[in-house]
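dude i think i finally got it to work??
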Amino acid sequence: MLDPATNTNTQVPTQAGGNPNLRPEIAKTRTVGFSIQPTGALRNLQLSVDYYRIKVTDYIAAVGGPTLVTQCFNGAQDACAFVTRNSTGALTFIRNVSANANQLEVAGTDIELGYKQGLGDIGELQFRVLTTIYHKLEYVNAGQPISGRCQTGVVTQQSFPSMACYQINARVNFTRGPWQAGLLVRYIPGGKYANTLVGPQDAGYNPALANSVSDNRMPDVTYVNLNGSYRFLNRNGHTLEVFGAVNNLFDKDPPPYPANNIGTNALIYDVIGRVYKVGVRFKY
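look at this
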């Protein structure tokens, strides 16, 4: 890591772990929403919209060794308590333990639209679309706000997620007697690799800047899942059902960008690949 006090790269022993002096996190949540289910020709339609805003103070996280050193160098005394130097000023030890050092705020809107339609003797078809729009995702570390919204490439800080601008999940289910089949499509739009970096696509890009990168964009990704089941028994509250599913049907790889030594943002993208599941459910 780079020590800003000496302007040299150095390897420093770092302790990670818990902290007996932690205080409980405090969250304040505000929500408002409505739901509509029309009558008449649209009686099978349902729409719900919910807005939420959550603010967490005394947010518990391990800030990170390089961040602690930089904050201490900039005069943050709370950070200096976790950084040790010898008599010559060289770094000798960093305690990167969990602390009530941060604040997290997220706001968004969930929109859900559902519709079902009977097909007579053929069966029943159901549609459901759930969209989450993120208006704000802000992490405050030692008084410095960092936005994780529309950032899908990296995790900005340890224990701090980043999010796309929005996500869409669409499901179609078909039921005919004991048979059921479903299709789930999950869409993640493209976003920035990191909000703290500047690429050719961003205003003010200059290759001479220390935070400049050659590409600061992530592609959009679509995942498709299939599932099906057959119910052998449904009598007097007793049921027996066999089911199967294929997740990530087309074996879509995550975007290959460096993030936390994983090679991608595992909080957003599928890092496993195509998965098959088969099982039996019973109730008695």
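The chain has one domain: 35-59+100-283.
im so relieved honestly
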